[in-house]
Amino acid sequence: YGREVAHSLGRGLAAAGVVVVSGMAMGVDAAAHEGALAVDGPTVAVLAGAPNVPYPAMKRALHAHLLRSACVVSEMPPGFRARRWSFPARNRIIAALTGMTVVVEATERSGSLITADIALQLGRAVGAVPGPVSSPLSAGANALLHDGAQVIRDAQDVLDAALPIGWSRPPAQADERARGDRCGGVGHQHLTGRATLPGAARPTVAPELSRVLELVDDGLSTAGAVAARLGDVTQATVSLTRLELLGVLRRERDGRYVRRLL
């Protein structure tokens, strides 16, 4: 169900000139890329490892196709192999690159919910595909819909939600960019600039993030060290990513987090 819907969404959106951004993971992610590639449309794969290291390994053919015909990006250095913490970190880039995040299938603890949460913090639209209430694979997506996410049934629903009412495709210049440099027209300013929440210049740290900030101030400056103290890798990575997006923390090239001067 999820792969079929993702392939259809990828195909329909790419045919309309919309850039499909996903993470090349097995299942839904790969299906979205494959749908876009089926119509020679624009798609970007954001990897948790180095851009020259296909992950998962069984998707080598898709990785090679994306390198030839689309775009593969990562903030990781060449040769870096994906680790558990790098997947949630990767999700923040996916959220920042897109105007709308669509969750096709998600369990209650799916990484795609991290992407949706970050997208909301960035003020981006979030949609979800409804699924059977009895299916654990749709529990997360259905929860998003319960909380007010846009209902996504097909590509037109995405266009209607993310573009002005009545448009069936983006403006002509968007199509021209899509046919040109596949990486150059995909909101590259989000890769070089710092994403910040709208509102006050000095961000307010939520209570659940204060503990993580205290740990960093105490010298636990890596995701692994924070996760070991909290006993929860996902909570540590998500919290560090949120603090980075808020501009409270800065991640150094060696992976350490340090507090920014506000």
Keywords:
262 residues; mainly alpha; Rossmann fold; Arc Repressor Mutant, subunit A; 8 strands
Explain what the structure shows.
It is a single chain. This protein is mainly alpha-helical and 262 residues long. The chain folds into 2 domains: 1-162, Rossmann fold (3-Layer(aba) Sandwich), CATH 3.40.50.450; 207-259, Arc Repressor Mutant, subunit A. It contains 12 helices and 8 strands. The strands form 3 sheets. It has a 3-stranded parallel β-sheet. Strand 7 and strand 8 form a beta hairpin. Helix 1 (2-15) packs parallel to helix 2. It is globular and about 50 Å long. Mean pLDDT is 82; it is low at 164-182 and 184-202.
Overall spatial form: globular
Strand % is 5-15%
CATH architecture of the largest domain: 3-Layer(aba) Sandwich
Cα distance, first to last residue?
Answer: 46 Å
**Strands in their spatial order, largest beta sheet:** 1-2-3
Structural class call reads: mainly alpha
Q: How many separate structural domains? A: 2
Round the Cα radius of gyration to an integer and report it.
18 Å
Total strand segments:
8
CATH topology assignment of the largest domain: Rossmann fold
The arrangement of helices and strands along the chain is: HEHEHEHEHEHEHHHHHHEE
Main sheet characteristics? 3 strands, parallel
Query: pLDDT average, as an integer?
Result: 82
Low-confidence stretches: 164-182, 184-202
Total helices: the number is 12
